[in-house]
Prior knowledge:
Layout: H1 3-22, H2 41-60, H3 75-79, H4 95-114, H5 135-159
Helix pairs in contact: 1-4, 1-5, 2-4, 2-5
Pfam families: DinB_2
Domain DinB-like: 11-153
Protein name: DinB superfamily protein
Amino acid sequence: MTAVASLLDELRAAREYTNGLLDHVPDGDWYRMPAEGVTHIAWQVGHLAWAELGLCLVRVCGMSPEEISLLPKHYGELFGKGSVPRTEDDRHPEPAELRAAADRVHAAALEAVSQLDDSVLDEPAGPPHLMFTSKREALRWCAHHELTHTGQIILLRRLLGHTARR
């Protein structure tokens, strides 16, 4: 198995796990923010879509943000790094649109990364980042980042009264 194929498997496995959890969250709970928390499921999913776009398509595959039309521009304000999850915002997408957006980005990322040769994986992955320097590390971080946020989704589900199981 090539290194690219192995990294693609990590990205797929992380998303499969996330989607299995989301399949059992009613739409009405996506923007509920428990008193114990500071976030909601919709922000987690929007953030994952925005981050995967930036990590895989921009940093690793070298696309410019302007040429990527997979997400509305305001998603950066709603879900990007440093954004603040809010329960009320007239720009908030419905859960089905958020999932579709995350699916579009994920499919595009898998397709773009699958075109890479293993020889480029040790090249720098854009500007400095605390968690990685190379394209290989950026792809691995993308999968780990997703699982970090999936853990938050699990906690939110529990706080909203859902069982821990998928």
